Amino acid sequence: MDLKQERAVRTRNQILRAAAEVFDENGYDGASVSSIVKRAGLTLGALYFHFESKQALAEAVMNSQPQAIEPRLHSDGLQRLVDITLVWARRLQIDPVLRAGVRLAVEQGRFGMRDVTSFEDWKQIMTGHLETARVEGDLREGVLPQTVAHFVVGACTGIQLYSQLLTGRADLADRTCDMWQLLLPGIATPEATARIVVAPERGAVE
What we know:
With 206 residues, this protein is mainly α. The chain has two domains: 3-60, Arc Repressor Mutant, subunit A, CATH 1.10.10.60; 65-203, Orthogonal Bundle (Tetracycline Repressor, domain 2). 73% of the residues lie in helices and 0% in strands. The relative contact order is 0.12.
């Protein structure tokens, strides 16, 4: 990558970060392009070079969620699926980009968007890890990876909403662990269930 490309990538990431902070604080309707540009310390021209509209910027923030999680993980199969959700629960408390992405994805119907990309991306990623678990013999016979992935995406969405209302997400890691303690015996073999580590500490990766 040459110097010009590197500068463009840095600028785009700078805009995304600023936009995420503003979306996180104010929601989509309360976030103005001018406030995003001011937060980024850039010009309107720079923003519109990378994103054609506020909606395009919101979509980019929504759909950047896996990049905030997947590079931090080193496990595989069923353990990786558990770890994705635990790191996600932890990062939602400290990462404004991830937090804004989740907020926008959940609230998007209020501002006329119907973009399921972020949910479908997570489902595809989780299905892949569940397929690995199936090949390794860790899933119970008859358990369908895509069905489990679909359920986990929906369950995590609901758990984080409830946790946000109840405790400001302070208990989200514990609630996520509760989900897995209930779910694992139904989808995993007894041997795999005993081996998989389900603990809030699994989410504390940098």
